[in-house]
Specification:
This protein has 351 residues and is α/β, with parallel strands linked by helices. It has two domains: 211 residues, DHBP synthase; 113 residues, Threonylcarbamoyl-AMP synthase, C-terminal domain (Rossmann fold). 33% of the residues lie in helices and 18% in strands. The mean pLDDT is 95. Threonylcarbamoyladenylate binds next to β5, β6 and β10.
């Protein structure tokens, strides 16, 4: 199959609508990451998403809408959801709501709830309006790869597997939406994203964060969100997180890089903009400013993909405080590193 990449013109959006209505797949930009869309009401179209991504069938998909009237056919809408939608839609908040029968169980992997969101990217909204179907769309990466934040990333993963990619430039947020479970006494963030715990609490009061957000699942622990698998968002090389005081971390990054390079590895560091000059000899990859976690979020997946392009095999990274958008950054970076963490002090002591 030949994969076309088209800028988001009216003709391209009409073609997208035609393909989606005919049961085919279209990759499209959203404000979080690029999605790989199919008609959520068409079981076979949904199954072809799993095939194109090599995605395990037990990992459910998010359904995208452009209009709240579409929900009548998709899910029950509790009053709490109405308040959240008023505050955060369109935008990077996915809500789990009780599923209705029109949504095939392939979308929800047999779960009782369906995940729904209204993206804010104008191209996504135009495409959803043009086809006027609920569109099931996971991130448009091959399973296990970082989510795509540009049309080029999608092409790298999906060339020959899907007919069309709509190019809407680079995704603003850069990390996937916040997934919120509202079907329990205290709503729970299953996956942190651009809509933070504090933003949610300002609207609906107390919200918890799933324990597995900042650590691997423990033996026998059930994943609340099937996507919270142990290793995810991984570059091919091994990523290690380096923690400690700023001066210790810089010294440790230099030492770890030196040792790895001496052992024949293609080694590099991921560091804040403020530290690039100090780590100039360590193949620094700029994560963005340490004072702007939104910038780190925006760049993270692109940076992880670049590590693969450069065939890096030993990668040492700084960390951000897990607060606000920093929580989403550390959830993704932690998974990229399989939560492998090194204390800077230990490195310096043994150097
Ligand atoms: O920003 C986003 O959410 C992007 C764009 C394309 O909208 N989509 C995205 O989809 O990240 P995906 O499939 O990569 O991630 C969906 C996440 C997975 O972790 C999945 O397990 C979880 O949502 N999920 C979906 N339905 C669920 C449900 N009913 N219960 C619990 N978790 C669910
Ligand atoms: Mg994904």
């Amino acid at each position: 199959m030949k994969t076309q990449v088209l800028p988001a013109t009216n003709e391209a959006l009409s073609l997208a609508a035609e393909l989606l209505s005919g049961g085919q797949l279209v990759a499209f930009p959203t404000e979080t990451v690029y999605g790989l869309g199919a008609n959520a009401l068409d079981k076979d179209a949904v199954l072809s998403i799993f095939a194109a991504k090599d995605r395990p069938a037990d990992n459910p998909l998010i359904v995208h809408v452009w209009n709240r009237d579409q929900l009548a056919n998709i899910c029950e809408v509790p009053p709490l959801a109405e308040r959240l939608m008023d505050a955060f839609w369109p935008g990077p908040l996915t809500l789990l709501m009780p599923r209705k029968a029109a949504i095939p169980e392939q979308v929800t992997a047999g779960l009782r709830t369906v995940a729904v969101r209204m993206p804010s990217h104008p191209v996504a909204l135009d495409m959803l309006r043009a086809c006027n179907l609920p569109i099931a769309a996971p991130s448009a990466n091959r399973s296990g790869k970082p989510s795509p934040t540009t049309a080029q990333h999608v092409l790298t993963d999906m060339d020959g597997r899907i007919p069309l990619i709509i190019d809407g430039g680079s995704s603003d947020v850069g990390l996937e939406s916040t997934v919120l479970d509202i079907n329990q006494p205290v709503p729970c963030i299953l996956r942190p994203g651009g809509v933070t715990q504090a933003m949610l609490e300002a609207v609906i009061g107390p919200v918890t964060v799933a324990g597995s957000v900042l650590r691997p699942l423990q033996a026998g622990e059930k994943a609340l969100s099937p996507g919270m698998m142990y290793k995810h968002y991984s570059p091919d090389g091994q990523v290690s997180l380096v923690e400690g005081d700023e001066t210790d971390v810089l010294a440790a990054l230099r030492e770890l890089h030196r040792q790895a390079a001496a052992n024949g590895h293609r080694a590099c560091v991921m560091c804040f903009t403020e530290h690039v000059a100090a780590l100039a000899d360590c193949q620094p990859h700029d994560l963005g400013s340490k004072d702007h976690p939104e910038e780190v979020a925006h760049r993270l997946f692109e940076t992880l993909r670049r590590l693969d392009d450069e065939h890096m095999d030993a990668i040492f990274s700084e960390v951000v405080p897990p607060e606000g958008v920093g929580l989403a950054v550390m959830n993704r970076l932690g998974r990229a590193a399989a939560f492998r963490t090194i204390q800077a002090k230990d490195v310096i002591k043994n150097a």
